[in-house]
Amino acid sequence: MKMLIGLFSKDDYESYMVCTEIIDTLRKHGIKVQLDETLYERLSDMPSLLDNAIVTENPHKDADMVIIVGGDGSVLSFVREKRIYDKPILPVNTGKRGILSEVDGKNVTTALEKIIEGRYHLEKLPVLKIMNIDAPPAVNEILILPVENIGKISYFRLKDEKGNFICNVECDGIIIASSLGSTAYSLSAGGAVLHPHVDAYIITFINPLNRNFTSLVVPNDMKIMVELIKPAMADVFIDGKKICTVDKHIVTGKSREKIVFVRLTKPPKSFYKRFRKRIA
């Protein structure tokens, strides 16, 4: 099977050992692997393993598939930093829960054999975008936290894309999560879980004054404006990474890009499997 694989790895020993297994398996099938200089140097004491490897600054470029070894944080970090959208990604978990993946270091060889044989599925999921800021899309969530307002209630106003008033909210912060991200921080904050086939995203309020109103589900094709009433400045995080500080408002909605995951189990069964892992 002719393929070119882009390989990224978390910077730890366990992940590097899994990378050696991945490279060795692919090499036996004549499949070339692209990796960055850092990963190449970490594996340089095994030169025979790397005789088919291509060193490049952007291993995902021109690759047919990308493999990311690490935990969920590593997957989100590499996707955000390298802008790996609309390209199949196989997450291989070496972290704790690994909600984004269904493959780990123990079964990676078996998983690769199935992929090489074409026995896999692609799960294409929407990601979110901040429309009025130059920032990468959010795979899981956009987090809005008021600046220097610890211990005090913050005031927000929500409007739709036409400026129609939706509601005022008093809370400590706001999480705007994709259907994929609804099982992450949003769920921990009391938000509902969205089935991946539901064409929507969820706005979850952190510690709302009104405990009967913890979240709002809106359709994916709808843009939402979050106005900062008090305080008028907030830090904005995308998938756990601080991006900037904004004043007055931010506008969010569905991005044109999609995140594409390689699944061995056909969706939505793969979602149920990962969801059970999340709530265990």
Structure in words:
By secondary structure, this protein is of the alpha/beta class. 20% of the residues lie in helices and 39% in strands. Strands 1, 2, 3, 4, 5, 6, 7, 9, 10, 14 and 17 form an 11-stranded mixed β-sheet that branches. A 6-stranded antiparallel β-sheet has the order 13-12-11-8-15-16, with no helix packed on it. β12 (200-206) and β13 form a beta hairpin. The longest helix is centred in the first third of the chain and has 16 residues, at 13-28. The protein is elongated. The relative contact order is 0.16. The model has no long low-confidence stretch (mean pLDDT 94).
Please tell me the overall pLDDT: 94
The total count of strands amounts to 17
Overall helicity: 10-25%
Number of helices: 6
Annotate the secondary structure layout.
Elements: E1 4-9, H1 13-28, E2 32-35, H2 37-42, E3 53-55, E4 65-70, H3 72-82, E5 88-93, E6 103-104, H4 108-116, E7 121-130, E8 141-146, E9 154-160, E10 165-171, E11 173-177, H5 185-188, E12 200-206, E13 215-219, E14 224-230, E15 233-238, E16 241-247, E17 249-263, H6 269-279
Parallel strand pairs: 1-2, 1-4, 2-3, 4-5, 5-6, 5-17
Antiparallel strand pairs: 7-17, 8-11, 8-15, 9-10, 9-14, 11-12, 12-13, 14-17, 15-16
